[in-house]
Amino acid sequence: MNTLHFLYHTTPGRLLLKPLTAPALSRACGAFLDSKLSHFLVRPFARHNRIRLSDYEMDNVQSFNDFFSRKIRDGLRPIDRDPEHLIAPCDGLISVWPVQGDTVLPIKQSHYTLPSLLHSKKLAARYQGGYCLVFRLCVDHYHRYCYVDSGPKSKNFFIPGVLHTVRPVALEQVPVFTENSREYTLIRTSHFGTVTQMEVGAMLVGRIVNHENEGTAVRGKEKGFFQYGGSTIILLIEPDQVRIRQDLLTHSLSGRETTVKMGEVIGHAKQA
Asked: Which keywords does the record carry (predicted)?
């Protein structure tokens, strides 16, 4: 029995979940991972997760969190600049779900609703009949992310919560995306309507670091980064705005995630 199965599928394990998912523990872990004392973890972590260090800027890495939020070298994540192409905001494993009624993510026994995800019935109504795109980042992924398109953006809305892991074993047992700490902004785009771009923290992720508040989003510009742990980015797109790549839809219907990279085309504007 692995550790996550013990935590989410057994009574003793569930008793341990409350302190483990509390933000206070993530803050304590984050303080250590920010310190130079944590640097010794970098190379074993990279080796275990088969991370090719030559792809990244390593000169200013002083701590484990510096490494976890490392920048990739120029040219290794080209951004598709066609304004009618919807791009992936990050590296990750994508699932795509049509928003039908209130349901967002029909993952096994768990169902998440837009009002509970956003804490806003009014905003949730905007996306009925549209799409919810979920990008799940694992610890070996690049943990910086960009804006999916250009346009005026709202302030950042932060919803405090706990910090479950975002791995499937947890998604089966608890409504992770509506319990975890998360932050989102609305981007008024020219080709995809008003897009909500949300970051969701996960177990031992102490921080979601977004660089800007209200202002103007620029397609492909770095929006922010996560610090240690697996994480998730969610895009909400209004109805009749985008044609999602067929392979992504087909895989999602069969319960499979698809690997994508930041800047990759994942859909096309409906009017294109």
From this structure: Decarboxylase, Lyase, Pyruvate, Zymogen
